[in-house]
Amino acid sequence: MRKEKNPLKKHGVVTLKAVAQHVGLTPGTVSAILNDAPSARAIPASTKERVTAAAKALNYRPNYFARSLRRRRNYTIGVIAGEIGDGYGSGIINGIERYLRAQDYFFLTVAHRHNPDLLASYSNLLVERGVEGFITVNTVLTESPRLPTVAIGEHRHLENVTNIVIDHELAARLALGHLVELGHRKIAFMRGHPDSPDAEDRWQGVCKVAREMALPACPELVVQIEKEVDTPQLGYPYAKQLLMRKTPFTALFAYNDISAIGAIRAFQEEGLRVPGDISVVGFDDIEGNAFQIPSLTTVRQPLDQMGQIAAKTLLGRIDKREDFPPQIWIAPELVVRESTGPVATGAGQRS
C-alpha cells in the first residue's frame, strides 16, 4: 500500500507557515511561541501547548540559517575545557549538550590541557568563529573575558562571569564525617593538581573540617598530585608514595574518582584489602563508579545538572531574559558504596 505524503510538507520540509495554517494562527504568533520570544509571554499557555504539540507532530524543524540572518546571530557558544576525555569534563559537557540541543543552539569545544598559550589562542579562535558566549570547565581564568561567560569550577570573582561552584566545605564534611563514623582517625589525603581551579578551595575545605573534627594533622599522610592525566594513573603513584612513607593510615580521601580508582589498584597490589585494610573515598561520582571492584564511595557532584545550569544561565544572559548572578552554589551529596567500611584492628599498618 502506498504511503500518503504529509500534505503540509513542501519539498519534504514542514514550513513555519504550514504549522501556522494547521493550528489556525498567524506565522508571527507561531514563530514567537516556538522561539520563546518576549512577545509570547502574553499568549495563553493552552495556545503555546497546542502550537508546540503541532510542531512536534508535524516534525517541524526551524530554518537555522534563516533565523541567523534574520536576527544577525549564529546561536553558537564556545565550551573551553581543561580536558574533555575525563569523566568530570565529559559528564558536564553531556549536560551542556543536552540543554543546548533542546534550545536549537550549537557549541564548539576546545581543550587547552592547562596550557595558557593554547587557552588564549583557542579563546580568540572561538571569538573569530562568532560564538556568543563561553562556558569554561576546569579552567583558571586570569582576566575578565570579552563575552558573557559561565565558569564551572572557577572561584575567582571576575566581571562578566558567573561561577558555578560546588560547596567544598560541605563535601569535606560529608566525606570525613562518614569516615569518622566508621571509626577512622588516621586519614590520608590527596591534594589536587595546582592547575585545577577546584584544588585549593577543596583543600581548604578539607583542612577546616579536619580541624573541627580534631583529626590529627600529619604531613606524611598528605600527597600532592603533580601529574596531568585523565586515567587512574593520576592516583596510582601517589598511593604507592603514601605506603612507602610507612606512616599508618586506615582511610584515604582522594582528590577525585580517577585518583581514587588508581589508589585502590596500588593498595591491592601491596596485598591490602579495600575496605578491609584501607577505606577509600573519591570525589565527582563519574560514570562507572558503581561497577568498580569494589564500587567506589564518593562525594557526588551533579555533573550533568551543572552543565545544564551553565548552559541555561548563559543563554539567559545572551538573550537578556535572566539576571547574571556572580555565583551559583551547588550542593554535593555522599554516595556510599563498597570501598568504605569500619576500621579494623591493624588496618592500614605498614611494617
Q: Which keywords apply here?
A:
351 residues, alpha/beta, 434 Repressor (Amino-terminal Domain), Rossmann fold, 3 domains, six-stranded parallel sheet, six-stranded mixed sheet, 14 strands, 38% helix, elongated, disordered N terminus
Tell me what the structure shows.
The protein has 3 domains: 54 residues, lambda repressor-like DNA-binding domains (434 Repressor (Amino-terminal Domain)); 125 residues, Rossmann fold, CATH 3.40.50; 134 residues, Response regulator (Rossmann fold). Helix content is 38%, strand content 17%. The chain is elongated, with a radius of gyration of 25 Å.
Q: What's the gist of this structure?
A:
The chain has 351 residues and is α/β, with parallel strands linked by helices. The chain has 11 helices and 14 strands.
Instruction: Return Rg in Å.
Output: 25 Å
- What is the CATH domain class of the largest domain? Alpha Beta
Determine the CATH topology of the largest domain.
Rossmann fold
Q: What is the percent of helical residues?
A: 25-40%
Proportion of beta-strand residues: 15-25%
CATH hierarchy: architecture of the largest domain = 3-Layer(aba) Sandwich
Number of folding domains? 3
Q: Give the termini separation.
A: 81 Å
List low-pLDDT spans.
Answer: 1-11
Order of helices and strands: EEHHHHEHEHEEEHEHEHEHEEHEE
Shape: elongated
Mean pLDDT: 88
Largest sheet: 6 strands, parallel
Total helices: the number is: 11
Strand order in the largest sheet:
4-3-5-6-7-13
